[in-house]
Each structure stands twice: as C-alpha cells, then as structure tokens.
From TrEMBL:
Residues 45-54 have a biased composition (Acidic residues). Residues 1-61, 127-146 are annotated as: Disordered. It comes from Trieres chinensis. InterPro entries: TraB_PrgY-like. Residues 133-146 have a biased composition (Gly residues). This is TraB domain-containing protein. Residues 27-37 have a biased composition (Low complexity).
Amino acid sequence: PFTSFSAAPPPAAAAAVEPLPDRDAGETTTEEGGAPAEEGKGIGDDEDEEEEEAWISSLPEDLRKRRGAIRRVLLPTKKGGDDDVCEVYLLGTSHVSRDSHRDARLLTESLRPDCVFLELCGQRLGLLSDGPTEGGGDAGGGGDGG
C-alpha cells in the first residue's frame, strides 16, 4: 500500500525553492513573496548566493546544463536550531528518455542523498521489484538489466 501526500512544500518553505539559474540568459530571481529581486541581487545575502553557487558547482557539467530541470528546495526541520534544513533536490525527467536516466544517475552519484523518491506510473512499478506487480504483469523485472 502507498501513502499519498501533497507535493506542495509547506508555506514557509515555498520561498526557499532555488531553480538552477539560466546561465545563458542571466540569472532571474525573485524575493520572498514573488516580487522581482533588485537588479544585480540574488535571493538573500551574499552568503546565500555563495551557498547556491556551491551546490550548483558541485553538480556534474551535464546536470549544470539542464537549466530549469533541477531545483533545490530547503525545508526547515524540527530537530535543531533555525539553520537546520532538509535539502530536497527535484529533477524533472521523461519516462522514456535515456538522457533522463543518465541525469538521475548523475544526480544521485554526485549528491549521495540519504533518501531518493521516485514518481512512477503504475506500469513501471515492476521496475523496482524482482517479481510481478499486484496487477499480475511483470513490467520488466528488477536489477541492473536496464
């Protein structure tokens, strides 16, 4: 059985979504609340900009080229002080794209996350298991076969 949940971030975290900047067209950022940021300024102070640059530069070159397809969301946690956040990386993919498969592998290998969430249609659930799905059909089996 699966548990459903809302994909929308909590209101306090909504402003923490950081899209990968479009390096060819120049950075476009917004301040909290959706208002355009002042010309020449990013989200937050210089430290925030340095942190944003650090996570972007930590990505493999192929992922840095995927403008708009990858985002980092910072969610506050309850475990500690004000600076404790959970970093969530969102990667837009296509079900049938070899490039998307490569991008997902690059992202997980480079960031080494503690947890990975997948969104799959019912027909592809069998890819995550070694046996047939509850629907009765085997959608390709598991393992590293492709």
